[in-house]
Each structure stands twice: as C-alpha cells, then as structure tokens.
Amino acid sequence: MATSTNGAAGAQRWKEMSKPEVGDWRVKGGLAQMLKGGVIMDVVTPDQAKVAEDAGAVSVMALERVPSDIRRDGGVARMSDPDLISGIIDAVSIPVMAKARIGHFVEAQILEALGVDYCDESEVLTPADNAYHIDKWQYKMPYVCGARNIGEALRRIGEGAAMIRTKGEAGTGDIVHAVTHARQIQADIRTIENAPSEELMTLARDYGAPYELVVEVARTGKLPVVNFAAGGIATPADAALLMQIGVEGVFVGSGIFKSDNPAKMADAIVRATTHFNDPDMLAEISRGLGDAMPGIEASKIPEDQQLQTRGW
Amino acid sequence: MNVNPTPVQGQPRIGVLALQGDFAEHIHMLDLIGINAIEIRKVQQLNEIDGLIIPGGESTTIVKLLHMFDFVDDLRSHVESGMALWGTCAGMIVIARKLANPYPTPLNFIDIGVERNFFGRQVDSFEAELDIKGIEGDPMRAVFIRAPIVQDTGDDVETLAIIPAKTDGTPEQAVAVKSGRVLASSFHPELTKDTRLHSLFVTLAEEAQIDSTRRNHVSHTTEETPATV
User: Cβ of A275 under 8 Å from any chain B Cβ?
Assistant: First the structure.
C-alpha cells in the first residue's frame, strides 16, 4: 500500500486502493458490507456487550459513556480506557468498534494495537484537531466516519474511511438530524447523478469533495462505501424509518441501554432493521417495549452545544 | 451489463437469505450470469426456490434471526429433500455441524467442523489466490474477512480448496467444501467480479430443480406437505 503522507494524493490513493485486485481497501470495506442490514450498539460494559450480542447486534461500539451521558456530564470526552475495550473484545465474538477523537491519530494507533475491528473517528468525543482529520490510509484497521452531506462523506472517504454514517445529533433520542443528513446525502447523490459530466468539477468544488470520488458517485449512483444511520435512533420505528429512507444499517447509541428494558429494545430494533419494509411486523415488534430513552428535542440545543458541527 | 430482468422458463430459482449481511452482492453476482435471484425474508418463500445462498454477515445475528423468524425446521426439510445450499463465510458457520467456538449454535446442514475468526481479528483479514476444484482457468481471488476455516470433514464431504501450510508450522486449511448439493466457503466471491463459483452453485440448483420436477411428476397425486407458517 502507498505510504506517502502527501495529503493531495488522497484521491489518487483512493483510486489505486479501490482497484478490484488491491486487497487492503476491499478487505476494509468488505467488513462493512458484512454489517449491512444490521444494528451496531453502544455498550459500556462487557455485560452490556453480551446483551447486545444475544439480541443479534452485528457489532458493538465499546465506550465509557453513551452519548447522552457525555452530553449531560460535559467536560472533555476521550478514547475509552484500553482495559474497558479489551474487556469487551474478550466478552463477545462479534466485531468490536471503538471511538477516537477527530484528528487524534495516536488514540487511533492505540485502538489498532488493541485489535479493535473498526475505528469511529467520532464527533461524539471532543475533537483533538480543529483543522485535520486522521489520515486513515495509514492503518490496517478500517474507519467509519460521520457525515451530514456528500461533501463531508467524500472528504472522509478520500482520507480512507471505509464506511460512512450520518452524524445525526448523538445522545438526544431525536431522529430529526439523522433523517436530515440521510436525505441530504441522497439528494446530493441525485444531483451528481443527473449532472452532465462537464459540471462534475464545479460540483466537486462546491461540495469540497475529491473530484475522482464525485466522478465515481456519478458513475454508480451511490456512495463508494457502505452508509449507515446514526444519531438519535431510539425505537424500532426509528430504525425502520432510516432503512426505508435508504441507509444500509443503523447505529444505536444511547437508545438501547437508556431505555426501560434494554434486552427487549435491542431485540426489537434488530428485528425492525431486518423487516423494515413490513408494517404488520413492525406493529408487532413495537408492542410493549416500555419507555424508550428520555429524549432531548434537538432543536432546543444551542448550536455551540451540537455535536454534529464538530469536524468539517 | 448482462442483466436478465425476468425469470427464464426452466431456469433454476435461486434465493439469497436477506435477513442480514451482504445479500445484495450475491444477487448482483447472479444477475451478472443471467439469474434473477430473489431476496428471502420469510420462511414461506423457501417453497419458491431450488437453491439458497446464506451470505456473509454476522453468524451470531443470522442464526438468531433464523430462529426468531421460524426458519430452522423448514430450512432443514428443504435441504433434506434436495434443495441446493451455499454458505459463504458467516453462511458457512451457520450451516456447519459443529463449531470450535461457543457461539452461535450451528444448524448442521453439512458434516463439517468450523472454527470462527481462525485468522484473527479484522486487522488480520486478507486476500489470496485459490485453486478451486471444479473451477477451470486462473485461480480465484478470494477475500477473507474475519474468516472461518473448516477444521474437519465427514466422509461424504469433498474439499474443493485449501490455503497451503505455512512455514511457521500452521497446517493447510480447507476453505471450500462440498457435500451433495451443499457448498460452503470461508471467503467472499460476491465481493469480486469472478462469477465462476456462482455458476457452479447454479448447476447444483439445476440438479435440485430437475429432481423436484421429477418428484412432483411421479407423486403429483400424493398430498403435499403443508408449509408451516
């Protein structure tokens, strides 16, 4: 694999790496393919990780505090203690993800050394760098990153992210921003798809996206990596809503273990993500789950306290 | 692109289990060889197919969902009556006889013992060139993602591909096997553009189709087994 650290070469590297016969990229993106149609759950203890695995989660996100607690507690949110992450890795057989702060490439190096299967360079933690995200090509460990629109998604992919998720507004239990971001990415893809080829460079400039990746989206009509929803999913219906809008799977952060009955809620969200298109089944699945997580209306959060505006 | 939008008369009917995982990639591969495959989400749909692919995904999740949505008994009776079946990666774990690992409990549709995540975690995932018995021409490029291997095989199981022994003393590992019409592979041909293993599976489904046509012809007056719903 290319080891150049010349940032301008990012899109070129994506082009090289994504050739069918070059392994690293396909192997990284391939794990995300395997997660499709699945639910990735935030967990803070090995016991919660077991509950998630038993409920049918395809992966768990190991962290010290779920986003709603991070929001409540304030202060600087950092990478979790390696003991906690290793404890969760040992507790389950499914892939384990963990979060590094935006731009904190040493936290990422530590996560890779721990054997973490996917790194989330996440706006939920306090950013370590206000200008630069991690050069994700430098790792064997694949990355998932948040995005609000096509420009942000393609910038992260240009840096080497092998999976994208909507940012939503984490820790609120309010789905509105995840919906907005999922729809925005799709609207942008339609714009690119319908544009004549001579307009693609201008679109790339306007989106702030690598030209090669804009051309790729124009050719295929989709993001070059798997796209999940995250940020505010609290019920089976929320998960099915995002799946019907067109994402390929969901992250549930605070929504499981801040609900009345986590095992039941986890199980129900897994079922709903598989049968997202079947209202009769969704009606059954949604019965008697107890209270969902207590939410915060996202529009009441002042802009300087939003998590989604972290990163660029 | 070689797309065949409508089912061709006489073509085997192939389904891809669409509970979780990369089922869309399998459907795309079958599309490339002119097969209009269907997504299987409900157990009744098993009556409509001659062959089923269980895709890559998370094996614990897929086994859980198969139980949750009451697939297991019907799936077993379809496999026993000759339906073709192919498990890729997680799919191979799901259909094995036994696992070296505590989770999940496999369904025993092929007489193999399997070890999950044999090569390690995601950072140890890799690609390799594989010679596969029954596949003509160049070796296949095989993508191994947190891949399982076949530890042991029953007498009627044929090994189609191995990863050779390594100099560090790791012995050779079976990564593709076949028994009757049941196929299992550790890797993901659906993530490549090489459709040859899919074509091999289509021939197994064709056998199943011919068989079931013959059986229905002979016994069309006997009572049909009602599908459990």
Answer: yes
> ipTM score here?
0.89
Q: Residues 185 to 214 of B: which have CB under 8 A from any A CB? A: 188, 191-193
Longest dimension (CA), chain B: 62
Query: Given CB atoms, is A27 within the 8 Å cutoff of chain B?
Result: yes
Interface test with B, best of A34, A51, A58, A274 (most B CBs within 10 A): A34
In SS3 terms, A202-259 reads as HHHHHHCCCHHHHHHHHHHCCCCCEEEECCCCCCHHHHHHHHHHCCCCEEECHHHHCC
pLDDT digits (tens, 9 = 90+) for A21-36: 334 788 999 999 999 9
Least confident of A66-75, A187-196, B13-22, B58-67: A66-75
Per the CB < 8 A criterion, the answer to whether B112 and B87 are in contact is no
Chain A residue closest to B57 (CA)? A34
- Which pair of tokens denotes residue A281? 């089944």
**Strand-pair partners of B113:** B98, B152
pLDDT band at A80 (very low <50, low <70, confident <90, very high): very high
> What is residue A299's predicted lDDT score, i.e. its pLDDT?
86
Closest CA to A135 of A151, A149, A114, A119: A119
Q: N- to C-terminal Cα distance for chain A?
A: 27
- Per-residue pLDDT, averaged over B178-185, amounts to 98
Catalytic-residue membership of B39: no
CA angle, residues A229, A110, A7, in degrees to nearest 5: 70
Burial of B136 (0-12, 13-18, 19+ CB in 10 A): exposed
